[in-house]
Amino acid sequence: MSQNLPRTDLLDRLAARTLAREHASLHRRLQVIEQVDGPWLVRNGQRLLGFCSNDYLGLAQHPQLIAALKQAADETGVGSTSAHLICGHRREHAELEDVLAAWTGRERALLFSTGYMANLGIQQALLSAGDLCVQDKLNHACLLDGTKLAGAELKRYPHVDVAGAARQLASRPQAAALLATDGVFSMDGDLAPLAELATLAGREGAALMVDDAHGLGVLGADGAGYVAGQGFGQHEVPLLMATLGKALGASGAFVAGSAALVDGLTQFARTFVYTTAMPPALAAASCVAVRLARSENWRREKLQALIARFRAGAAQLGLRLANSPSAIQPLLLGDADTALAATQWLEARGLLVTAIRPPTVPAGQARLRITLSAAHDEAQVDRLLAALSELPQGAHRPGHL
Ligand SMILES: *Cc1c(COP(=O)(O)O)cnc(C)c1O
């Protein structure tokens, strides 16, 4: 028997940490959504107008997506029955990969079951111990986790600070390096300085990776995303990742780039190799989502008009919005209690806008993450603005932080 102190009980420790979160107003609870109808949700029997989904184009319940899902399920069943490299890679997946590569202007694309897994797999395939990964401080959690999984050194730079990124790269000029950024930042809605980052990556010999989860479908002439829309091809941004669970209204993710990249990931990305392929019916529905997202420009135009209307209204009210041209329009509130109180206050008025608290965002930057969708109409945006105008006076106005 060991002479040391008794072991820590892991479940007790977890319970203690959970309790600490509760005391700090940072505890999270699942809420069951009983029904969905466009932007409307039913929860606890209450009908709420939602401004928190990522269904930016209003495609998640589109009859053509549903019909494609049903038809493909009739033909192929529900599950893919295995990993892609065994016998799970179906015609529907191959077609979706081709469609995504063509849309984003890349040679090839490779499907992953989720964006989280894509970001883990890319980095784990590319990076080894001793390599360097330089990332924006506000990158999505799974980009940060990917570096940890790969065992590489993670160095972060202040948000959108290209000089900061340059300093981090220069700190280890000999190391093989990945420079990774969100295209549209998921909690702030603002944009990465792509041109400057591409120049920096080129100068430093680092590979540039952009996570365009919130740009795909929303930005670019035919919705090809922030990266492709700005004219950045495979040469400037060799690693483009995006998801199917946001503007496309489906689920899953992909990496697009050169044929050599896709071949390499197919060998070495463990989150691709050792997992069940997404249901083929979901791939079929995603193909339809891409077609609609490309062709139905009115969805993007309507979304942009609603964003402009919301921002103009919020400016008139003196609300503290981030500098965001995207569908993500965070209202900064400061501490977690204020954000929670605001959420509850809006809920009592029939609006669902979730509070985003640390550790998802930095301490002191709790917020309402308001998201807009082509599924909303002007009257609904006005209703949100009217409710926000009556938010109890306090932290949401400049000078009160
Ligand atoms: C949502 C999101 C992911 C994760 O994608 P999932 O398909 O939901 O796992 C990755 N990166 C960013 C920037 C995201 O917003």
Features:
401 residues; alpha/beta; Aspartate Aminotransferase, domain 1; Aspartate Aminotransferase, domain 2; seven-stranded mixed β-sheet; four-stranded mixed β-sheet; 15 helices; 14 strands; binds pyridoxal-5'-phosphate
User: Main sheet, how many strands, which sense, barrel?
Assistant: 7 strands, mixed
The total number of structural domains is: 2
Tell me the β content. Answer: 15-25%
Order of helix and strand elements from N to C terminus? HEEEHHHEHEHEHEHEHEEHHHHEHEEEH
Our count of helices gives: 15
Radius of gyration: 22 Å
CATH architecture of the largest domain: 3-Layer(aba) Sandwich
Q: Order of strands across the biggest sheet? A: 4-10-9-8-7-5-6
CATH superfamily of the largest domain: Type I PLP-dependent aspartate aminotransferase-like (Major domain)
CATH topology of the largest domain: Aspartate Aminotransferase, domain 2
**Small molecules bound:** pyridoxal-5'-phosphate
Mean pLDDT over all positions: 95
Query: What general outline do the C-alpha atoms trace?
Result: globular
Top-tier CATH class of the largest domain: Alpha Beta
Runs with pLDDT <50, length 5+? 397-401
Derived from helix and strand composition plus strand pairing, the structural class reads: alpha/beta
> In total, how many beta strands?
14
Describe this structure in words.
The structure is a single chain. With 401 residues, the protein is an alpha/beta fold. The protein has two domains: 30-57 and 297-389, Aspartate Aminotransferase, domain 1; 63-295, Aspartate Aminotransferase, domain 2, CATH 3.40.640.10. Helices cover 42% and strands 17% of the residues. It has 15 helices and 14 strands. The strands form three sheets. Strands 4-10-9-8-7-5-6 form a seven-stranded mixed beta sheet, sandwiched between helices. β8, α9 (226-229) and β9 form a beta-alpha-beta unit. It is globular, with a radius of gyration of 22 Å. The protein binds pyridoxal-5'-phosphate.
